[in-house]
Write a structure and sequence with these properties.
The chain has 315 residues and is mainly alpha-helical. It has one domain: Rhodopsin 7-helix transmembrane proteins (Rhopdopsin 7-helix transmembrane proteins, Up-down Bundle). The chain has a 3-stranded antiparallel β-sheet with strand order 1-3-2. Helix 2 packs across helix 9, helix 3 packs parallel to helix 6 and helix 7 packs antiparallel against helix 8.
């Protein structure tokens, strides 16, 4: 094992730990709110909970094989295991894209005026969150099935011929397979969804700017408090969309550059792995930057502690 492999292994391991810790913490806190204090939940919390779950799955299916490779853990991934790991990661990546789009569109309609042309979406979108999440699971589950045929297990660490290597697995270059049309469709979908994210983000920015101009001289405490709450939530979602676009575009560029190189580069593989799991790692800490969210969870745990102590005293 080379020193550079150890360095990359510890770096990926730290990213794995940081990402899982943040996403699992938020997932548990959101589930606690749903199950113990349902009166405090908001419709958007369901999207956040789903996003945390998708992030956990994406980190596990991407970083765990990368860490195993860096530390030279020679667990053989045969065809079935390779197909399962790469298929699961592809599905979670698609779910992440769809969830961020849904999140940005939901918040854009939430902060829009009741007199705007999108006002009719407000009441309908809240009731459609769960069905929409179910639909994107079904679509992404079946969408990536044809790509499974393009994956084969590796019996060693050598990449033979014109192959694009994965951890313990290899996949033939797309242009030699019938999956080219599917990949083209996925690229078009990704570009369209990223464009819609950016459009909804710009729409929210324009709404916030106009709202600040209108409410500059408003001194009502209740109005300013509600506006401040929505503003913080909108800022968090704008940061999430911004980070997603950055990591997605960077990873896409590095991936295409690597595919057109005559030889594989371990450095580029490491950069691609870090970028592909960068967003799910950063995502929970962007949300934790929302002070209201933290205070709500602290108060929830305080209530839970008081209830537990009271039950113990009566016992």
């Amino acid at each position: 094992m080379f020193p550079k492999d150890l360095i990359s292994g510890f770096f990926l391991l730290s990213e794995l730990f940081i990402g899982l810790m943040g996403n699992l913490l938020l997932f548990i806190l959101y589930m606690y709110t749903f199950l113990i204090q349902p009166h405090q939940k908001k419709p958007i919390d369901m999207i956040f909970t789903h996003l945390m779950l998708v992030n956990v799955l994406s980190i596990m299916f991407k970083l765990i094989p990368d860490v195993m490779r860096s530390f030279a853990v020679r667990l053989l991934f045969h065809d079935v295991a390779c197909k399962a790991v790469l298929y699961a990661y592809s599905v979670t990546r698609g779910l992440s894209l769809c969830t961020i789009l849904l999140l940005s569109v939901f918040q854009a309609t939430t902060v829009s005026s009741n007199h705007s042309k999108w006002a009719w979406l407000k009441s309908k979108l809240e009731s459609c969150i769960f069905p929409l999440l179910l639909v994107i699971w079904i679509i992404n589950t079946f969408l990536y099935l044809p790509m499974v045929e393009n994956v084969k297990g590796k019996i060693n660490f050598t990449v033979v011929g014109s192959k694009s290597s994965q951890i313990y697995c290899r996949s033939n270059q797309v242009r030699h397979h019938t999956t080219m049309s599917l990949v083209t469709a996925l690229i078009i979908r990704d570009i369209l969804f990223v464009f819609l994210m950016m459009w909804s983000s710009l729409y929210m920015v324009s709404l916030l700017f106009r709202h600040n101009r209108r409410t500059r001289h408003v001194h009502s405490f209740s109005v300013s408090l509600h506006a401040s709450s929505e503003k913080r939530a909108t800022h968090s979602i704008l940061l999430l969309v911004g980070f997603f676009v950055f990591f997605y575009c960077s990873n896409t560029f590095v991936t295409f550059y690597s595919l057109h190189r005559p030889k594989s580069s371990p450095v580029l593989d490491l950069i691609s792995g870090v970028l592909s799991s960068g967003y799910p790692t950063v995502c929970p800490y962007v949300l934790l930057n929302n002070r209201k969210l933290i205070s709500k969870f602290i108060s929830s745990f305080s209530d839970f502690k008081c209830a537990f102590c009271a039950r113990g005293c009566h016992g």
